[in-house]
Amino acid sequence: QVQLVESGGGLVQPGGSLKLSCATSGFKFSSYRMRWLRQAPGKEIEWVSEITISNNPNYNEPVKGRFTISRDNAKKTVYLQMNNLKPEDTGVYFCANTLGRGQGTQVTVSS
Questions:
Q1: Residues of the chain by 3-state class (helix, strand, coil), percent to 5
Q2: Which of 55, 57, 90, 104 has the most other CB atoms within 10 Å of its CB?
Q3: Averaged over 63-70, what is the pLDDT?
Q4: pLDDT tens string 27-43
Q5: What does 23-71 look like in DSSP terms, one character per residue?
């Protein structure tokens, strides 16, 4: 079955960095556009970034220039490198595609 498992979240100070990973199985990874979503406390789920099957990235405006999405088709894994983190980046981060969504990993940016 389709599985998406996020990891790499944690507590970081403002200005710090984290790299999230999403390991997948159960589908042909290379044929799917992959996305990162996030949900801040008390807010709706927000699209963060996506990467196409041709490796073209797109970013939501609040994270442009700070986040970098990438994929490794051989490892069936998508990554999100997050730099210069801000308190407003706090939330649960999910990876997703049209087949489903993972359980998420918590990112907390606080001093």
A1: 10, 50, 40
A2: 104
A3: 98
A4: 999 999 999 999 999 99
A5: EEESS-GGGS-EEEEEE-TTS-EEEEEEE-TT--EEE-GGGTTTEEEEE
- Write out the two tokens for 98: 């049209």
Counting every residue written for the chain, the total comes to 111
Contact criterion met (CB below 8 Å) for 77 and 86: no
Find where tokens 């290379």 sit.
30
CB 80 within 8 A of CB 69: yes
Distance between CA atoms of residues 38 and 99, nearest Å: 17
Residue 32 is encoded by which pair of tokens? 């799917």
- To which residue do tokens 């927000």 refer? 46
